[in-house]
User: Which sequence fits this backbone?
């Protein structure tokens, strides 16, 4: 009998828990420890942020589903890691603190045979002075509550524009090292479409601000892609869309301070600037959760488990950009010190950025951190679950399932407007996510044909279809496992 | 605002009939790319 503890119930944690439960016999226990009571389909938050969906459309409660499917669920947050147990308990455990219900505040040592850390990122708003959702006219769409606040503020702004008041809207990244430019990109295009729908587009000045060195970098160093019969750079594709929609842009910008209606930022040329706004949505920096780990004698061993995020089978040797290779990226997401601990999805520490690091003339690093999207999160969670299942069933360690981001494709279906007949989407598919310059030396490290872009109504339908398909899958409805990650 | 997408191209982008076939094509193409497999990189290149 084995007990597998999954920390987190986001895309990665939920995928791991559901596959483990389906494939392992009931004599084994699958336990999910998560402070969140709801599962949320994060990619649809941008539609909550434009009022086109309600939070109830993208979330569902975890407890009833887990109870029905035989997954143990503890609404608690992990406090510390004890991979060797302690003087009282021989088995490894995590210390969890309950955050809801009658046991709120109570601590429990949750023992495990296998641990999957899928805690995702901490939304580090505090790394940018003054950046806090729903203050200083600044908003976020990172969670459904943030997105709801953003929509209320945007709706108010639209009403004021209808009364003839001109407004400035600023959307992008809120820190010099932010990632997830794709979400901000989707949001600015959806906002632009909503302004059109309400007949106030000409009353708004819409500006993109990002730490990308060029448009379309997306934290992946940009890409060369097929677009129809043409081959173009992602920067050209995004520039075409922004110009066509009248969106201005500021790039190479590290936002460092937010005041009420004023964003302060530094650019790569070392200049300091400000940009005023009436509404802003800025993606914060992501960071690890700052977990601590202890050995059986209560000695701090945090550096064996964490490097900000969790250490896995990556090559973390510091080296210059020119020496980076796809082989640096992890394949099994197993911690090298403790073979029964894994960190798929966003919880693992990347060996380095994907986009070339850049520093301003003042020495400030301004470049995107590696993107962490839902698709690789799901794929890596499933392969981790499959390796644990093989290990348990075969009674010997197995790491047969592998999935490097240097040998994995990802589809980014960026909504650029909602509506069954008026909607639009920009479908960008990349293979591989981490460029392999040895395999594909002439095409920026990616395989053309598998790296392509498409713009149109079909993209919106596709994003909507994925919304429904993945929520169906997450709810473990009949034959849910047939839907790939 | 600068027109960067021609009227013809915009018509193709927003025509539901054309886009229906594009939807089928994109769904299959993305499925092949994403669900078509993944693996390690080290053994292959070493």
Assistant:
């Amino acid at each position: 009998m084995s007990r597998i503890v999954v920390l987190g119930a986001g895309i990665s944690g939920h995928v791991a828990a559901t596959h483990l439960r389906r494939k392992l016999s009931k004599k084994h226990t699958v336990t999910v420890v998560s402070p969140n009571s709801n599962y949320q389909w994060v990619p649809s938050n941008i539609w909550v942020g434009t009022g086109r969906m309600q939070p109830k459309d993208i979330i569902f409660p975890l407890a009833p589903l887990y109870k029905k499917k035989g997954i143990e669920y503890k609404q608690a947050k992990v406090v510390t890691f004890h991979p060797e147990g302690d003087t009282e308990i021989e088995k490894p455990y995590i210390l969890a603190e309950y955050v809801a219900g009658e046991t709120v505040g109570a601590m429990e040592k949750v023992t495990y045979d296998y641990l999957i850390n899928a805690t995702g990122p901490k939304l580090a708003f505090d790394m940018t002075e003054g950046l806090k959702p729903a203050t200083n006219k600044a908003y976020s769409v990172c969670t459904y509550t943030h997105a709801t606040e953003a929509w209320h503020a945007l709706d108010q702004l639209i009403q004021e524009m209808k009364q003839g008041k001109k407004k400035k809207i600023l959307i992008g990244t809120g820190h010099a090292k932010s990632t997830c430019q794709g979400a901000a990109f989707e949001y600015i295009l959806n906002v632009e479409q909503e302004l059109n729908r309400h007949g106030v587009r000409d009353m708004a000045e819409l500006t993109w601000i990002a730490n990308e060195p060029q448009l379309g970098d997306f934290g992946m160093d940009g890409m060369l892609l097929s677009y129809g019969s043409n081959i173009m750079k992602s920067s050209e594709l995004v520039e075409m869309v922004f110009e066509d929609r009248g969106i201005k842009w500021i790039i190479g910008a590290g936002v460092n301070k937010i005041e009420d209606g004023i964003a302060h930022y530094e650019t790569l040329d070392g200049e300091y600037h400000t940009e005023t706004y009436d509404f802003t949505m800025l993606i914060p920096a992501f960071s690890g959760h700052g977990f601590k780990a202890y050995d059986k004698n209560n000695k701090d061993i945090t550096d064996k488990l964490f490097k900000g995020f969790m250490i896995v089978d990556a090559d973390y040797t510091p080296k210059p950009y020119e020496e980076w290779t796809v082989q640096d990226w992890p394949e099994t997401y197993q911690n090298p010190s403790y073979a029964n601990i894994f960190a798929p999805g966003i919880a693992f520490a990347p060996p380095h950025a994907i986009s070339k690091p850049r520093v301003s003339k003042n020495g400030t690093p301004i470049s995107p951190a590696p993107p962490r999207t839902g698709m690789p999160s799901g794929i890596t969670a499933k392969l981790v679950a499959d390796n644990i299942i093989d290990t348990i069933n075969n009674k010997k360690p197995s790491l047969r399932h592998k999935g490097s981001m240097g040998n994995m494709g990802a589809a980014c279906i960026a909504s650029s407007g909602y509506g069954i007949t008026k909607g639009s989407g920009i479908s960008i598919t990349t293979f591989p996510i981490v460029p392999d310059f040895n395999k594909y030396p002439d095409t920026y490290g990616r395989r053309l044909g598998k790296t392509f872009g498409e713009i149109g109504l079909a993209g919106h339908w596709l994003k909507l279809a994925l919304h429904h398909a993945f929520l169906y899958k997450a709810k473990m409805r009949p034959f849910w496992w047939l839907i790939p990650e | 605002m600068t027109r960067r997408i021609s009227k013809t191209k915009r018509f193709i982008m927003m025509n539901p009939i054309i886009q229906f076939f594009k939807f089928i094509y994109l769904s299959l193409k993305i499925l092949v790319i994403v669900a078509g497999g993944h693996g390690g990189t080290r053994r292959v290149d070493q």
Q: What stands out?
A: Helices of chain B lie at 7-14, 16-35, 42-45. The mean pLDDT of chain B is 84. The radius of gyration of chain B is 18 Å.
